[in-house]
Amino acid sequence: MTSPLLRRLLGFPNRCSHWVLYRWRRSLQLRVATTTALVSAIVVLVIGVVLLGQISGGLLDAKRKAALAEANNGLRVATAELSVVTDTGSDGMRNSLTQLVTTLSAKGSNAGLFDVAIIPRESGQEPVVSGGIEPGDVPPRLDKLVKQSRQGYEYSSIPQAGGGSVHGLVIGEPLDSPVGKFGLYYFFPLQSEERTLALVQRTVLVAGLVLVLLVAVIADIVTRQVVRPVREAATTAVRLSAGFLEERMPVRGADDLARLARSFNEMAESMQQQITQLEELSRVQRRFTSDVSHELRTPLTTVRMAADVLYGARDEFPPGVDRSAELLHTELDRFESLLADLLEISRHDAQAAELEAERLDLRRVVSRVIEGAEPLVERTSSTLKVTLPEEPVVAEVDSRRVERVLRNLVGNAVEHGEGKPIEVVLAGDDEAVAITVRDHGVGLRPEEVGLVFNRFWRADPSRARRTGGTGLGLAISLEDAHLHNGWLDVWGEPGKGALFRLTVPVRAGGVIVESPLALRPPDASPEVERPAASWPPLDPDWDGEPTPDLDPETGAPYNNHESSGISVGTRLERDTLEDGR
Amino acid sequence: MTVRVLVVDDDSALAEMLGIVLRGEGFETSFVYDGSTALDAFRRIKPDVVLLDLMLPGMNGIDVCRALRAESGVPIVMLTAKSDTVDVVLGLESGADDYVIKPFKPKELVARVRAQLRRNEDVPPESISVGDLVIDVSGHSVTRDGQPVPLTPLEFDLLLALARKPRQVFTREVLLEQVWGYRHAADTRLVNVHVQRLRSKIERDPENPRIVLTVRGVGYKAGPA
Fold this sequence. Notes:
The complex is a heterodimer.
Chain A: H1 4-26, H2 28-83, H3 90-106, E1 115-120, E2 128-129, H4 140-147, E3 152-159, E4 165-177, E5 180-189, H5 191-241, H6 256-312, H7 321-349, E6 358-361, H8 362-378, E7 384-387, E8 394-397, H9 399-416, E9 422-428, E10 432-439, H10 446-449, H11 473-483, E11 487-493, E12 497-505, E13 549-550, E14 557-558, E15 568-571, H12 575-578
Parallel strand pairs in A: 7-9
Antiparallel strand pairs in A: 1-2, 1-5, 3-4, 4-5, 6-8, 9-10, 10-12, 11-12, 11-15, 13-14
Chain B: E1 4-8, H1 12-24, E2 28-32, H2 38-45, E3 49-53, H3 61-71, E4 76-80, H4 85-93, E5 98-101, H5 106-118, E6 127-130, E7 133-136, E8 141-144, E9 147-149, H6 153-164, E10 170-171, H7 172-180, H8 189-202, E11 212-215, E12 219-222
Parallel strand pairs in B: 1-2, 1-3, 3-4, 4-5
Antiparallel strand pairs in B: 6-7, 7-8, 8-9, 10-12, 11-12
Helix pairs in contact in B: 4-8, 6-7, 6-8
């Protein structure tokens, strides 16, 4: 059981380390400053250790030399003193030794204060000491050395008169005299040297820390000078890519960074020029389309009216001429719808097409299209079976475009349906609305499925056309579907007919995840799974349900559900038309 | 009495062709080839219908339309080569009653001209009230508290169609058929723009209409009296 507070406390170091790691990865400045500080800290540490070693070595060396000189001097004095001692009795001896110790220890010298001890090397005599020294304070190794009549020194701790002990230098010398053999010991406390050393240590430490800090700050400042323009460049680039083409970097001085800024600005300048040029080009293109439209339409109107007048009066013409008037009349219809379709597709190409979405009941749209298509259907033996839900199917759509798509799909079904029944189904859910148009005609071969939305593509060029389509109908329908953020898919099998499905989101600009209607009709041949390894990588733009496949020739995604190639479903993305085919 | 049609179009071939077709239907036609003389010609000829091309030299069609509307409620039918919404809506907002997109069929044009003329036919005396407005059907006038509210004949017909059957919802298609007289020319932008214009004249607060109400996803209806 962990309380939230505890969890937060436990999580804190984790969050901290995350933050530091994030900053570390993000900030060049921080990295450079930290690295510089670390490296200089190591250098300062090494220098400090060497320096302190040198200084303490030098200090102790000088002390030792002075101490040895003092001890030798004392030994001479002691030897001289003891050679004149006459009273060799216990008390007399003791007095003489005590006096000698007092004399020796009271001298003082450039080796500083010290204590002296005279310890007999033979039994029978009492040791004599000055200050707070005990005979047992003599380091055993030194004692042994002196007992072998040799001189020596050793660093050891020295007890003080007031209690406690300090580091010190103990020098031992053999003192041979007529009155006996002694060891003369000098105890030099190293207090002042330690103080000096401590001071030096503190100074070196503080100086080192200050130096490291200064180096870090300097590195930070220097890096900032370099990094700031780079950051400015990054910010400017972001603003540029966000469309603020006027954005430039400030140029200061004439150094490398100023050169960076200048080159950056030159790049931005040329980019701006290019973009403006392209925008201009696109504007000109749109303008051109609009102008062509106007310029073509006015004479076409005159021709159209003239043709109608001629057509109206064709009964009065001689044979041949009257047929000409008829042909002129009907072909003008085709010419007009072709022109209208061309203008519509160029509006899509120029991205000048606008979605005029309004909420409406799609059942009415479907009914209107069906009503309009009835004369066409009556000319064939086929029938239209329409399935509409009981309740309204409301969506935000551009009724003109949806109607046009449906007119195209129904017209297409009539043309290729071979007089067999045509089924139109409308369905909707919370997210999307779908309409399917199914015919039972010749159907589509697998290789045709990827082509139906291509401009001016015809399933069978030799077949007679009944509806007089322009060849652009499905291409425009696809664009209209895309304008709605919707899908236009097709399924087809030879002999089983074709099914087109339009799916649009309920709300304008919404995203479809799944269509309310299935693309594959119940009588479709069963799907055969292809081995997963042979599937090309996913298209990032793909948002539909089935995994897409890519048409090897066109690069257009479609669902090739079956390797035998009998049953094929397809959905074409925008690319298909922008391939320029 | 012959119906006079004023054709304002800079394309002489089209104007001549329009003349042939309209005369064939029994109209009397006059022609103006640029925008700047259109207003003078209008005052001189006093036509029953104006056919106005949107792209004109001198003064463009939109400005001509505004100028005509400023001094007359004469039915104006725009001839436009642009089917883009912006152009169509701009034309309608400047005061045109209807528009035909080039290329059009002669029959279509004649039907539209006749539909505009039908407005001026005689009707029996009748008075309908909607909201705080009183509609004098035969007198073709609308008053609020005794003060006349100026409406063009088309706006008058639109209001009348809605007011005759209060609370009934009219789809845009039905309104197109009843007010404009078309069965299949389904461009509902006509209705939208004219409803906006009507509201700006009859509603006290056009942003918050009380007389002509929108029924979302269906169409319009007249508000409760």
